[in-house]
Amino acid sequence: MNFQIREAITANVKGDNPQDFQETIQDAIARGDEHLLPGLGVFLEKWWQTSTEEEHAKFTETLSKAFQN
Q1: 45, 55, 65, 69: least CB-packed within 10 angstroms?
Q2: Do the Cβ atoms of 27 and 39 come closer than 8 Å?
Q3: Its family (predicted)?
Q4: pTM
């Protein structure tokens, strides 16, 4: 079986609105299940690919601060 996680996650959320994405992300974080991490990774990858350099810089600055605590 050739299972492509990116394709499966993309198909699963295709057409979702911003509220749907927010609920999906909040649910994944609240559950704390490690099997949900690849999905969040796919979300991050897609966001990164479609964001500006300025957004990248702001995100990485915030992420760096979050891991200093």
Answers
A1: 69
A2: no
A3: Belongs to the SspI family.
A4: 0.86
For 65, the token pair is 């601060």
The 3-state DSSP class for residue 43 equals helix
Those residues with Cβ within 8 angstroms of residue 48's Cβ, 6 or more apart along the chain or in another chain: 56
Q: How many CA atoms lie within 13 A of 51 on its CB side?
A: 14
Compute and round to an integer the Cα radius of gyration of the chain: 14
Can you read off the two tokens belonging to residue 2?
């050739």
Q: What is the pLDDT of residues 14-62, one digit of tens each?
A: 999 999 999 999 999 999 999 999 999 999 999 999 999 999 999 999 9
Question: In 5-63, which ranges are E strands?
Answer: none
Length of the chain as a residue count: 69
